[in-house]
User: What shape does this take?
Amino acid sequence: MPSANASLDAVLSHVDANLDQSLERLFTLLRIKSISTDPAFAGEVNAAADWLANELKGLDFDASVRPTTGHPMVVGHQRGEGPSVLFYGHYDVQPVDPIELWTNDPFEPKIGEENGRKVILARGASDDKGQLMTFIEACRSYKAVRGSLPLGVTVLLEGEEESGSPSLDAFLAANAEELKADIALVCDTDMWDEETPSIITMLRGLVADQVEIQAASRDLHSGMYGNAARNPNQVLAEIIASLRNPDGSVAIEGFYDDVPELPEAVAEQWKRLPFDDKGYLGEVGLSEPAGEKNRSVLEQITSRPTCEINGMWGGYTGEGFKTVIPAKAWAKISFRLVGNQDPKKIREAFRAHVRARVPADCTVTFHEHGGSPASVVPADGPMLQKALGALTQEWGREAAVAGSGGSIPIVGDFKRKLGMDSLLIGYAQTGDRIHSPNEKYNLESYHRGIRSWVRVLDALSR
Assistant: This one.
């Protein structure tokens, strides 16, 4: 019989003893083809939502499938004494194309072996079904041994994350009071490396813009108009070249005004983390860092803002050759933001930089492609420190406080709409091939992820 006085070790032992049954449940979920972006799989997405709601009900959660204008949300509550947490994950997955590159049926999970480690092979194994099940299975063991969870838990599982979360904003706004908690737990992230757990405290924001430069009213023959006519390709190339200074920094006026330095404690910890600048670049065939000269590669990819040219085109780009001066040229430019950088302010500064360099006889048009601010969790927050201690105890090495080069918009939504900070704790690896054929999830990471959540929930309850 469950006992409220049972030790934490007893809960962890239950996790270990029931790993096979846990994997059976995960495999059942992985077999559901919940591809959210393809309408042909809408029934499978609904089936995954129903399955998860039933699992939560079996653990005494007040759980239900909530309709939206798109795919459903799953919400479950288990009230408790003391602090409360909101756990977020997503149950939808990416398409499996190209299917011919898979070595096994992507929706028939199996245990394989890579580099001497056992891995779970299936679409969604890492992103995000395996990750969200680590939390649910931690709750299961806690309930089985102690009879109740150590704190209040709300679970929010989304079915549209892989297709842009079109229904999430309205759902959060309509259910804000119900979903509010002391802190949000987000599992859709990686460990620092295979042996080092991490909590992501910095997520970069994003600004994306498309630029169109037009000169002549039509494409021109370069023999008849060369030299005399403005070439939009050259104009755009010169503007793009002006975005960076020789030292690798971004040349837009005011770009760094709201960029903070790393907290000293975080900077010191990063120096202790195993990170090889040359090895990181070497994996993709590069050798020299291209960003700010006085910043490490780790800083450049996580805690510093970026300016990148994601695409540029104009004139004839097909096979063979066409001696043309194009009437128009285009580029797609994106910025990753950090600290207090304001997406609107950065977009306006970028556009002002471009306009100031557009010569006579040319016009510029901009097309906005979204923007969101960075998200930062205080590195000295009490809940963060408790979670770090729990992870360090489970993995036997200091848990990392890390930054992420990417953007997870829901973390900002939780802050702005629900007033909550988030702890981003995941047990995936950067080599899990998410979104690609042969997605995998390290079996040990799955197992110890469950154990880690047990320890984190216990630590946060105190």
